[in-house]
Amino acid sequence: xxMHEKETGVAMKVIRMPMTKAxxxxxxxxxxxxxxxxxxxxEKDGIPMAGIVDIDALEDLIEINDPKMQRKIRASMKDYxxxxxxxxxxxxxxxxxxxxx
Length: 101
Prior knowledge:
The protein is an alpha+beta fold. It has six helices and three strands; from the N terminus they run αβααββααα.
């Protein structure tokens, strides 16, 4: 899962940069994306064309846009609104018990 500043203690930046300049600075940009969670917006003639994000953020984006995952999220929200929930401690105990089998 993608970590935000609150969780990492490191400030994230959104960097807008022409693609020609990004090509020259690719290593440093990727390092900032990986270490700080920066987001790089690549521009051509001032128009945003693409972005560079951390792999965890990309995986989250892909997953959240997956129709199968969207169905699961909607079903979960329906259960939650209907009161079909259980305490977190019960879930943790169940998962720990499964892990010892």
